[in-house]
């Protein structure tokens, strides 16, 4: 970060230049990503004490830290205008009149060993005055540009020493505020904070319970600006141990995220009443510029992880030979599959993965997204390292999960449905299907490779890294199965691969956590919406759930195969295919995701716009973050959409099948 003078800072503000810099030698920092109507300040965030004063201070760093407001700067990092103090309040307190800004005693303790010299006072007061001159220029520019300004004055407080009753997580101080003019905004702020929730912690907001907002910052703004509202807000230090300074990082992360959304909600409400322009959605209040830290992490993550395709390492090399041995043994032999070796060093990979500077990303929502991607890739590597070993099932369970009771009930419900459809027998060769896929590409409007392969278990699959659709050479296909595969593999899996190429952020090529589950759900949804989902296909997805359940319960390969044959009347090739899919690697639980993913995709499709999920390898869990990034133009609209989205309607389907599906979603 650059360091600039006070005058350079004021000149930049007056000329509406966006910048991020330390000012007055680092006394405070100012980030302006866009000249919006609201400002966030953390004036007690700092801990710095210059050398001229540090040796004269009687208090330990821990004692000073206790009364400072650490991490409040992090609460406002994501905001487009963030003003953060770096100097300790023990050098000069920006929330007191200048004559009282240098403590002699504070909270019952003498601060200095000997009286502060006039020279040192002058230096500290100079930095104090510089802060307020910069603030004045910033608020003035904001009022001129928007007609009104909203200033969030963020603090934190120690609560363990407060004996009188429970205290709120968020305390709003209103003593210096013009309630007759700003009352609706103040009430909205309190109401918004009261709707926040934290896992395992009570979350509440109140006005004037702990502090009344009598600080100098509120006084200064009230006396100098008639169209600016300050909202002094203290956050209870539930995100740390206030006595020994340990930080509870998970709580801090959750608090930062809910606080970000609360500020945006309240700022939007303020704008609708007091500024010249009224944005329609809150995300436009944030900057469209992608942080340099995001780009740095994104590029490094992609360089590290690109080309790691799970199925490349999990698909058996000796599938055909082991299938013949299994049949020859009259199903009394457990296949011994062999696999491709990893072509990278997993230990080195993990080290590089966790060295990525994710903590430098200021926007907490985006930071969490990248953290979760990194954690997911670590689990994926654990799974790939253990392919063919006893640990593989455990790692697969960690990565994909396993079917729950509802999944099993839904699977049995579908399996007991009476057949009502008649289709031609599968007779289409793989080379004909290959041609059908190539013709379908012209309809979708993008290009990829389509190859026939003898090395896959699935009927068809997409190799994302090579942008290739693979068709199973040994299989024969029906017409409806061919169409279903086109809309599944080409219309979702390959389509999202192609769309991800158009995004500046490469994380959508790698995949968000849960993307496999979401991708398969969307792919089956595509089959359904184009009129190509049929009962036999649904029953196959249900049998995969049952097979995963049996495998997790320690049934061996042969027993699961025989149950599929005897109890569910499957042909031996179909039973072998389902069993091999589930038992490959040592126990691959992914296959239960198709049916549950479809049900969740259909629920979401009925209630919200899912187009954002087609920008790349996304996940249901990140719809809100992706939409925010799209609204901020950090992520582009998907270049291609499944055909049912393009047509804006569902293709004709079977009424009986519709009834069955409505019964389970």
Structure description:
The chain has helices at residues 6-14, 51-54, 61-67, 72-75, 118-146, 179-194, 216-224, 249-274, 292-305, 310-314, 319-328, 346-355, 364-385, 391-400, 405-415, 430-444, 479-500, 507-510, 515-529, 535-552, 557-566, 572-583, 593-607, 623-631, 643-647, 655-664, and strands at 2-4, 19-23, 28-32, 38-42, 81-85, 105-106, 109-110, 149-157, 170-172, 205-207, 228-236, 449-453, 460-463, 468-472. By secondary structure, it is of the alpha/beta class. The protein folds into two domains: 2-287, Zn-dependent exopeptidases (Aminopeptidase); 293-664, no CATH class. The longest helix is centred in the N-terminal third of the chain and has 29 residues, at 118-146.
Terminal CA distance reads 52 Å
Strand count, sense and closure of the main sheet?
Answer: 9 strands, mixed
Order of strands across the main sheet: 1-2-3-5-4-8-11-9-10
Helix content: 40-55%
Low-confidence stretches: none
Mean pLDDT metric:
95
- The amount of beta strand, in percent, is 5-15%
- CA radius of gyration: 30 Å
- Please report the total strand number as a whole number: 14
Q: What is the domain total for the residues?
A: 2
Taken from the alpha-carbon principal axes, the silhouette is: elongated
Structural class estimated from helices and strands: alpha/beta
Number of helices: 26
């Amino acid at each position: 970060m650059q360091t600039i003078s006070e005058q350079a800072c004021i000149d930049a503000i007056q000329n509406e230049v966006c910048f991020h810099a330390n000012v007055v030698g680092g006394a405070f920092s100012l980030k302006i990503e866009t000249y919006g109507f609201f400002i966030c300040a953390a004036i007690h965030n700092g801990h710095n004490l210059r050398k001229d004063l540090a040796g004269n201070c009687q208090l330990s760093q821990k004692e000073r830290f206790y009364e400072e407001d650490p991490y409040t700067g992090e609460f406002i990092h994501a905001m487009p205008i963030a003003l953060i103090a770096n100097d300790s309040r023990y050098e000069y307190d920006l929330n007191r009149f200048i004559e009282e800004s240098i403590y002699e005693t504070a909270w019952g303790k003498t601060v200095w060993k000997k009286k502060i010299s006039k020279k040192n006072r002058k230096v500290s007061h100079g930095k104090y005055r510089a802060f307020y001159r910069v603030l004045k220029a910033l608020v003035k520019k904001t009022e001129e540009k928007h007609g009104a300004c909203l200033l969030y004055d963020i603090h934190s407080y120690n609560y363990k020493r407060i004996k009188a009753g429970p205290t709120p997580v968020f305390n709003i101080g209103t003593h210096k505020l013009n309630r007759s003019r700003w009352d609706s905004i103040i009430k909205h702020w309190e109401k918004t904070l009261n709707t926040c929730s934290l896992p395992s912690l009570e979350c509440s907001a109140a006005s004037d319970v702990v502090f009344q907002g009598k600080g100098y910052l509120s006084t200064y703004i009230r006396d100098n600006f008639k169209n600016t509202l300050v909202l002094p807000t203290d956050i209870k230090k539930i995100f740390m141990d206030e006595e020994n300074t340990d930080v509870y990082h998970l709580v801090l992360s959750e608090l930062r995220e809910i606080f970000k959304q609360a500020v945006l909600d309240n700022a939007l409400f303020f704008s609708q009443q007091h500024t010249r322009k009224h944005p329609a959605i809150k995300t436009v209040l944030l900057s469209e510029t992608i942080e340099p830290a995001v780009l740095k992490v994104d590029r490094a993550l992609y360089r590290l992880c690109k080309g790691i395709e799970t199925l490349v390492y999990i698909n058996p090399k000796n599938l055909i030979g082991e299938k013949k041995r299994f049949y020859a043994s009259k199903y009394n032999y457990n296949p011994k599959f062999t696999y491709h070796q990893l072509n990278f060093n997993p230990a080195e990979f993990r080290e590089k993965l966790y060295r990525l500077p994710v903590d430098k990303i200021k926007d907490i929502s985006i930071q969490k997204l990248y953290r979760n991607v990194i954690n997911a890739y670590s689990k994926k590597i654990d799974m790939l390292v253990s392919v063919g070993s006893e640990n593989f099932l455990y790692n697969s369970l960690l990565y994909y999960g396993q079917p729950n009771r509802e999944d099993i009930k839904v699977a049995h419900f579908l399996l007991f449905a009476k057949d009502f459809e008649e289709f031609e027998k599968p007779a289409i060769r793989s080379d004909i299907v290959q041609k059908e896929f190539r013709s379908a590409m012209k309809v979708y409007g993008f290009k990829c490779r389509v190859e026939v392969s003898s090395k896959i278990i699935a009927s068809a699959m997409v190799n994302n890294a090579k942008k290739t659709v693979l068709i199973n050479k040994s299989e024969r296909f029906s017409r409806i199965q061919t169409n279903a595969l086109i809309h599944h593999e080409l219309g979702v899996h390959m389509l999202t691969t192609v769309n991800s190429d158009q995004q500046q952020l490469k994380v959508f090529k790698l995949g968000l956590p849960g993307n496999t589950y979401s991708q398969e759900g969307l792919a089956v949804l595509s089959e359904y919406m184009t009129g190509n989902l049929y009962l036999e296909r649904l029953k196959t997805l249900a049998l995969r759930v049952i097979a995963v359940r049996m495998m997790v319960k320690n049934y061996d390969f042969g027993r699961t195969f025989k149950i599929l044959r005897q109890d569910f009347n499957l042909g031996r090739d179909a039973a072998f295919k389902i069993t091999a899919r589930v038992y490959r690697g040592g126990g691959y639980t992914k296959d239960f995701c198709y049916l549950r993913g479809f049900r969740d995709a259909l629920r979401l499709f009925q209630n919200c716009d899912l187009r954002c999920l087609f920008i790349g390898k996304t996940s249901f869990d990140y719809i809100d973050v992706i939409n925010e990034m799209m609204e901020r133009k950090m992520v582009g609209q998907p270049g291609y959409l499944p055909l049912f989205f393009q047509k804006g309607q569902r293709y004709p389907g079977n009424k009986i099948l519709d009834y069955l599906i409505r019964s389970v979603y």
